[in-house]
Specification:
7-stranded antiparallel sheet, 4 domains, Rossmann fold, 6-stranded mixed sheet, alpha/beta, Glutamine Phosphoribosylpyrophosphate, subunit 1, domain 1
Length: about 625
Amino acid sequence: MSILGVAPGDSPDNLERGLFVLAYTAESPRTKWHSAGVSLGVCGHSVLSSGHECCVLLDGRIDNGADLSGQLGIGETYPAELLLHAYLYWQNEFPRHVVGDYAFAVWDGRQRSILLGRDAAGYRPLHYCIRGGELYFASTARGVLALTGMRAIADEQKVAAWLALDADSTDRTFFEGVSRVPPGHTLLFERGRATARAFWEPQKMPLLHLADPREYAEGLHSVLEQAVRDRIAPGRKIGSQLSGGLDSSSVTVTAAEQLTARRERLTAFTAVPAVVVDEKLFPGRFVDERSHAALITDSYPNINPVLISNHAEPMFPVLDRMSASTERPQLNPLNAIWMHAINRAAQQRGLDVMLEAVIGNFTISYSGARALPMLFWGGRLDAATRLAAGYMQAGQGLLSIGSRVLGPVLPTFARNQITLLRGRSINIAAQATGARPEFLYAHGHTPQDFPRGGRIIDGKACRILWLGMTDLGMYVSAGQRLFCVEQSNPTSDRRVMDFCLSVPEEQYCLGGRERSLIRDAMAGKLPDKVRLERRKGLQAADFFPHLTLERDEIERELDRMQQSELISRAIDLPALKKLTARWPANISDTREWFDYCLKLTRAISIGRFVRRIEDGTVFS
């Protein structure tokens, strides 16, 4: 038996440089550590520690180091050494006690076992392959492929899952034979066998019952402050993505307040339309977030505002660069353009950390969408009636309220009809990605039953399911490799997630006010126009003129995709070609927006990605 492992070193561009390699062979009585041109110890975000016949390799950041040191009765030490002590004390259960963004490998020479693991939010990636009783692991899938010598082959099951908008529900990757350690899990490898286990189990956490609703808001503000503080260490230059929504604005102002006390500045980046967009096409949405962002930056003098055009960069080079680095197709290619441009601008300004709020909708700014059905079907009819009255007072109609109550228990067809009556698109997978329904059915997916969790009444269970479908590790590591800027997300901090999942559902929609918890927590911090805004922002709403410039390349790419047998089976290419043939002068309704912004661009994204796997250029 031999165990090989790789973790990222000090070179963001070259896989073969600056890597730690762990090798254990049955012929050798000792574990051997090899390094490629770097000294053992701290190297970029990777740290190595060894002792007591055990070795620890850490990629990431530990946020509760002082608490852990106190529990373990040791003095201050560096993170990997701390994890080594934690492992020796708690053995395989130690990740339950660790807070931070991390991936690790622990070799135990006494047990002849290796333990891999990732933090609850999965903000550091970790991949592996088991062949002939041997384990190969690396931060990236390409690292595993390099170690094993395997050829990159597209995993058809993963392609189907992505097209069904269910990409991260299993441990598969887009590369056949390479798996990922899911967020909040460990993988124990011993005696030639691997066992995966979840150490983050939020479904077992009890709900938090407080006497005064204001205490929930105070608690949310407190854990968010701590999560931000742990990500903006003194001496580091900080940036943030700032939209007009509640998530990024709450993170930005929390960071700005803390930096003010240190007399330091924050650079806030806002993506803005390059052309004027008719908001009538998008009821309930606002498409230009610069005015909301300006209200925030005007309120905090230490914020440097930077506007980034949605049309800042061409689509195809961004797609190729991002997909090569994330090792997956981009789900929203048009958003990838401005996100890539923001990170490039952050790099040019010499920033060290970029704060974001990617999963805030599931944590700090959750809407309480399941409160009404939970109250109604749970028999709390008086509370359900009061909440329904609050929704009506907030301007929601009877059809919307009835949909909330009945949606989780209705069959798919009836739920879709209600969605259409409310004037919304049925966002089923085949329509959202251009997939052939028969391809999805053949791989166990039901394209008409999107989104997942639609029939779950319990809001906490539904959010846990959604969080489990979100793995951001490769996106985060790609940003760091491409731009040398650390991506950090306070809304996915384990303490924030634990707190938000412990708050009773109705606390998120008090009096019929959706997202009431974050609105109350940020009172006096956010300008009221931002804090009380009921519309949602819509990014890249001005996409069509930019996409029109790419039309010729889109048509050529569809022709190239047709040469792939897998893509021809998976995607309805004739339907996409009809879209390009009848290219409109302007987007005139929601249906056209859906077809061109989502279906066409997503199909191009995955088709081009699979094609590049097949022709061997995916990592170039």
